[in-house]
Amino acid sequence: MSAEETTELRQRQANFSKELHGDHVGERTGMSALISKDKTAQQEAVAKYLRLWDGKTDKDAEQKRLEDYNESTHSYYNVVTDFYEYGWGSSFHFCRFYKGENFQAAMARHEHYLAHMADIKEGDLVLDVGCGVGGPAREIARFTNCNIIGLNNNDYQIEKAKWYAKNAGLQDHLQFVKGDFMNLEFEPNTFDKVYAIEATCHAPSLEKCYEQIYKVLKPGGTFAVYEWVMTDKYDENNEEHRKVCYEIELGDGIPKMFTVDVARDALKNCGFEVVVDKDLADNNDQVPWYYPLTGEWKYVQTLSDIGTFFRTSYFGRKFTNLMVSTMEKVGLAPQGSVKVTAALEEAAVGLVAGGRTKLFTPMMLFVARKPLDTTEN
Ligand SMILES: C[S@@+](CC[C@H](N)C(=O)[O-])C[C@H]1O[C@@H](n2cnc3c(N)ncnc32)[C@H](O)[C@@H]1O
Asked: ∠ CA(127), CA(355), CA(365), 5° rounding?
């Protein structure tokens, strides 16, 4: 894409975001934010997200989704961000759970662990690739006292992230900028550390995305990532496997889920030295990472988790679908909201099936180092 095309696309996306979400984006979250949308723009955003997820899984359909990654991901997060915040909170990722551990504590621990593995230190300049509404960045800045630039393709999330950072008094440590992780515009060798949490799975090519990260990382710097991948057990020619994978792609706005080998090779091909390569979901944990989506009350850890668990569980999701469908019928929620909750439902089914069968992991941890001497690469 030429520089002019990029500028034009950004301007169009920024204008559309303003039209859809309005001003003062931080002040409303979840259902209250949903009902404040511009109804026509919301319909357009839902159509843009779903137009290429039409049930087809052939190479041609896949190619179209790969080519459209930027617009369709932008549209996906335009329509799901309020639901994510309503159901999950302001960190949009999964995590491991210890028995008895509260949901928010487990989420924070997952973020601290990545910061630790990336060796983030006080004063480091860190890039958060695909930063959502900045939940992990706020936590990691507090944990380490580093400075983070959160990069995101979605204008609505950037505005929210800025609002939350200011509200938390962290504006001196955090910046949020619009950008595409397939074309990072920072100077080479800028960042001490880079991390990405469940974001680069939206890339049409992991290798091209990691190449960009390699470029902006200082020599000797570390890149740590929780990657979404299909595991070694996945067989693309197995219909059941492909179904699970497609449900995840559709409901999470991912053009193509790659396998763990593809991710590992991509890092190495860019010149990274892979120092940690571990599937954190493959630990026989007593409480599985996907428990909030299961509806199995036996896993609920503390009283404070009941609200989150209810909203994300099977029955809670049915309740939300019914509520959203009623709100849509009476004109409170914009048309298309039900289609979004239906897609999120497919995602939840695919994620639980993928988790139970270990065909899929949302926490493939890679810690990769850019060599100090990069003259050979
Ligand atoms: C599942 S969310 C994870 C957000 C965040 N890491 C967290 O854990 O809260 C994926 C994020 O990747 C961002 N993203 C997707 N494609 C992108 C792209 N091409 N460039 C930059 N960000 C992108 C999305 O806008 C979204 O914020």
From this structure: 30
